[in-house]
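Bug: token stream looks shifted between consecutive jobs. Job 1:
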Amino acid sequence: MTIPNGNILVINSGSSSIKYRLIALPQEQVLADGLLERIGEQESRIIHRADDSGRLNEIKQSVIAADHHQAFKAVFEILGENCSVDAIGHRVVHGGDRFSGPALVDDDTIASMRALCRIAPLHNPVNLLGIESCLAHFPGVPQVAVFDTAFHQTMPPHAYRYAIPETWYSDYGIRRFGFHGTSHHYVARRAAEFIGKPFDRSHLITLHLGNGASATAIANGRSVDTSMGFTPLEGLVMGTRSGDLDPAIPLFVEQTENTDTDAIDRALNRESGLKGLCGTNDLRTVLEQTNAGDERARLALDLYCYRIKKYIGAYYAVLGEVDALVFTGGVGENAAEVRRLACEGLSRLGIAIDEAANSDVTGAIAEIGLAESRTRILVIKTDEELQIAREAMAVLDKDHA
């Protein structure tokens, strides 16, 4: 099974949206991409861009998408009956410790993904819906699952284990998995290429900062630690997630307010983070309110950046040397003030920002560190869809060999 000049359709099926991109490999040309959002609402919308002589022309239209089945029907219709798809790559959030790399979709892969729904109830079921929809619409077309957790499966036990009763690990599989692995992997390789160092000899700290946020320590091209844990709740402060906190706090609140675990889960995942601190999960709004003198917004920004700085320092200690610090994700790529505050005071670690370069970032990759600094600081535009397409192609070529 090989598709040396194939078109890879990349599917990212979320709880209320579907992202897709059609990529021609090996030239890595985007033929089409789009987003269907507001699944389950009264009026859903699709934004579709199709290649027209090297340019992506955009179409916006309302669609009926009461559920994911109708949503995928709308996506397939706008792609068109004559759309040439040679293989499909799916983003899957949780691969547990079963998958350390991408996997060809078969009955065994689907069964394993289904079993993981108990620890990823918000993500894996809709990821599976995407796979099932594509299997039905593209019969005989090979499909590959690419897992957010896979890149972090190289972590050593002392990094992925928790200091909890052994039976919690042996019976329930409770351990650190980490997420955003596809993004961390992509930008880490781009960073190594940019600084001219072999990936398998590169020491990097990558920061994926968006509504969800995570940090990863990479030694010799392998993830050795990451901030998210058993779930995406642990680690950095995020848009609506708390990040690290004393595990006794949920127990205290549950007992004090006589509430239930669902309410605690909702509070920590949907009502905390920046939103809990200042009422909004949009970092752009936080920055605007901070500049207007809002004290709650100022605290939220300071806490957000302080947590990033703590992880930079911790991962510097883990790695011993750092070739480059990489910012990516919607916030990491666009928020100069966040980058500045996160690196402030780290010059003794060889991390120092060039203020002019930091305020004028353009293109897919930019360098924002002072020239004389020991550790290079990069801003890299992530491309998870391209990484998924590459990994899908690699699996199919290997399967053919």
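Job 2, same session, no restart:
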Amino acid sequence: MAAPCAALLSLLLSLLLSFLLLLSVWKRWRRWRAASRHVAVVVLGDLGRSPRMQYHALSLAKCGFSVTFLGFYNSKPRDELLHNDRLEIVGLTEVNMLAAGPLVLQYGVKVVVQALQLFWAFVKIEPACHIFLQNPPGLPGIAVCWLVCCLFGGKLVVDWHNYGYSILGLQHGPSHPLVLLAKWYEKFCGRLSHLNLCVTYAMKEDLAQNWSIKAVTVHDQPASFFRETPLDLQHRLFMKLGCVHPVFRARSEPLDPATERSAFTERDAGSGLVTLRQGRPALLVSSTSWTEDEDFSILLEALEKYEQLSVDGENLPALVCVITGRGPLKEHYSRLIGHKRFQHVRVCTPWLEAEDYPMLLGSADLGVSLHKSSSGLDLPMKVVDMFGCCLPVCAVNFQCLHELVKHEENGLVFEDSEELAAQLKMLFSTFPDPAGKLNQFRNTLRGSRQLRWHESWRQTVLPLIVDT
């Protein structure tokens, strides 16, 4: 009985290897015919919430490559991707964990199904001369993309945003077997790539010292659409958002019914001129993916202290706090916010369209970042975007934040809710005085020479691709 089973297994394995060999020859021939100008950009995550990989895809398309952008299509990417003739989006199906069974089995089934799905997607698309892969998540992406490069030709480029095992460790603890296995996989498979990019100098050093991986630091830069928002567009945005979110609506009606008024702006009925309202509230913005590496209790406690200062008679403006994003902890924090009884502070947690988010940043008075990297080695891209809009930032401190936020130069760094509350008091005590600290930071950002993403990309990444 054993002999026939072994013979059948050997036959199936031979057929599989023959199929892969023929597939490899066919794909390599297609890539040769296509003159090697096709690149795949891969995210085993939501494409609409992967801005850096969107920027990679757009820059590749602008430089003459045809691009296939693979990932989960849960939220809409920017219109520039959707309307670019050189760029095709291929949606992958997100695989959910099994509802029952041991944790190792649940993860194992998910990884195998995702691996097969990703490999089949590569079989169907045009062969790629380069595969850009976001890590994390790198399981099973790094192994699958490396195998595709071996079979079909091409070079694997891994863009290290963080370490996947460190994020997994937030849920299960650093010594959990799954976390240790993920670390081994990431370390071993990361060395299989032809080129490695990373987001900070600190991560470059860590990859070299602890992983024996040579990487090139490519700091995040804001895209060209992150800029200060003109007043007329601010007003249009506030009126649009006010249809859904009351914090953007004016609390009193204008004397002239033809005048449009939001909580922050007013459009004159006769001239159409938009002005900022006298006595308007200050607008604070924070964005998040609502995950364990961002502790929003710090912001809520700081807002409570700000509220108490206002109740005690401090000369502070009313404050509208807008926290944007989606993620697993949003419901938890929404419940906490709902239990607050603020009088001088109003909190809103909308999900914004891709085109509205830059406009909101360009309209705000202050940005707050609560991103604490699970590895301590990546930087919050939300701060990069805020700086692109010349928006001053208060950011919670961690290991390599100094590569982006210079304390008392382009923003402020805090350690806890007490320090954040003190910074809010200091920044808003003279609001909206043009000579106040907020505007000093804003003027510093306006005066700095900020490279935009595509300009930086052409200088750093494009030569690397050509040489690889």
